Structures are given as C-alpha cells and as structure tokens.
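Support reply, case 0932

Customer input (verbatim):
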Amino acid sequence: MKFEDMMPELRSGKKATRLGWNGRGMFIFLVNGSSFQVNRPPLLGMYPEGTVINYHPHIDIKMVDGSIMTWTPAQIDLMADDWAVVPVTT
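Our regenerated output:
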C-alpha cells in the first residue's frame, strides 16, 4: 500500500508499518488533537499555570525499544509502496 492510501487508515484509528523497516514491532499512529491546561514543566516555564494549550494532531512512532516519539516521514517513506495496516492483537 502507498502512504497516501494509508492515511485514511491512520485517521480511522489504525496503526501502520512498513514491511521494509528493519525494526520489529515498529509502527506509526495518529495522535488526535486536544486541549489541556499547563500544569508542569517544561510548558510551566513558558506559560502561566492553567493556560489552555491546543495540541495539534500529529503522527507518532513506536520504536523497537517500546518508546514513543513524534514522526515525520522521509521521502523514502512517502514514496514507498510497502505500507501495511498493523493487525489488531487481542
């Protein structure tokens, strides 16, 4: 599947992976936008406590070690046709 075909799957709450990625268990997922009140650093050092922040939607990636970080696709990811939906596990 191509990346542009995968985006509707991400928007519907599914996770996606590339078959060509070396790391087992890696996948991307959409983080929906939200609003929250500032109550801890580092934002507490930039805004007064209680300030409402709008958190924009973005894509995160689950890494091999289980950590999560924001993800920006490289050109090779955008052009790849080996995208697949991650099967749901019970």
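We compared this against your earlier run and they match. Two observations from our side: The longest strand covers residues 27-31. The first helix runs from residue 3 to 11. Please reopen the case if you see a mismatch on your end.
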